[in-house]
Each structure stands twice: as C-alpha cells, then as structure tokens.
Amino acid sequence: MKAKPHRKSTFINLDRTRCAIQEISGYTPTDATIWKSIRSTNLQRLTREFLWKLGDFWSHIDHLDMMGQCHICRVPESLEHIAVECDAYGQSIVWNLTKQFGDWFWMHLGRLFAILVSIAWHLIWKLRVDRVMVNPNMPLNKDAIHNQWLKMVNAGLQRDRILTNKRRFGTLALKKQIVLNTWSGLLMDENSLPDDWISTRGF
C-alpha cells in the first residue's frame, strides 16, 4: 500500500539492463518488462530469487554485510562484477563452458539464451558464496566447476521435460515443441534419439 521508495542503484541497474538489451537485440524494454523477466518461468525458482538479492541488498542485513564487498578485488559487489569483472577463480571457466555452443548459441537469443546465461550467473554466485561463507580454503579445479555446470544444465533440461507433463500440470504444462526447439542441436548422440525424445526412458 505504501509508495515504493526511489533507489538510485535500482534506477541505474534498470537503465544499464535496458541499454544492454537494446544493444544486443534492438529492443528497448520497459522497467515493468525487466522486472517481469526475473519472474519468468524459464528460470528456476532459486535462480529467480538470487537475481534480486545481489548488490546493496546484503549490506542492510545483520551479519551479512561482508557479502556486499568482493574479497578478491576489494570493490563493492554488483551483479556485473560477479558475472564478468571479478578475478576470482572459476568465473571465466563458467563463461567459457557456456560459450562452447558457439555461433549457434548467440544467433538464437531467446529461451535457451535465458536458461543458460542464468545458469552461468547462478553457478558463479554459488562459487562465490562457497568461497566467502562456506569454505574459503576449498580448492577448486576446472573439472569440478565443469561438473557443477553440467549438472545444472542437465537439471534445466530435465525440468523442461517434467514441465511438459499435462497430467501433472494441466493447462500450465509447457508445450513439447517449445522444449524440443529449445534444446535441439545440443544433445549428446542426438541423431540416435527419436524426434520426440522428451518421453524417452533413460535419456
């Protein structure tokens, strides 16, 4: 019921998001569209939650103020810093894994783009939380990060398959063709799979 406070950082982040989208696609989204995109069902619930908890959010919570500053670079934390600027080990590995889809991936900006980029961001965030709050001395290696990334991508694929179940989700179920189109060209041994692989056992 109360008027929403005007936060400078929120205004700046919305404007930067809008400019980035316009540069990539030529489309200029409204503030409402940007906020709605964070609630998109294309993103897993935990991913949607973490997107709004970054930046200044942490500095206002007791005992979590240390989450507001990057311990590696000694600068204020932000989504941009976590995702693309931080020198912490693992960030570049995650993006290189995501970019392995090559030109095909970037030419199909849409549902798959949203899923995989959100997975990359979320994994980078999880690596940071583990480093800062769980076990700062925990050794990381490329294979371990690769396995975490692959596990999250496979979870996204399996989630899509489950959401096509009309018996379980009724009118809210995803259309099979949307899922087939989203993941087409990315599956292991795809040529040996049936055209409708969604219900294939052991997949």
Automatic annotation (TrEMBL):
Keywords: Membrane, Transmembrane, Transmembrane helix. It comes from Mycena metata. The chain crosses the membrane at residues 104-125. This is Reverse transcriptase zinc-binding domain-containing protein.
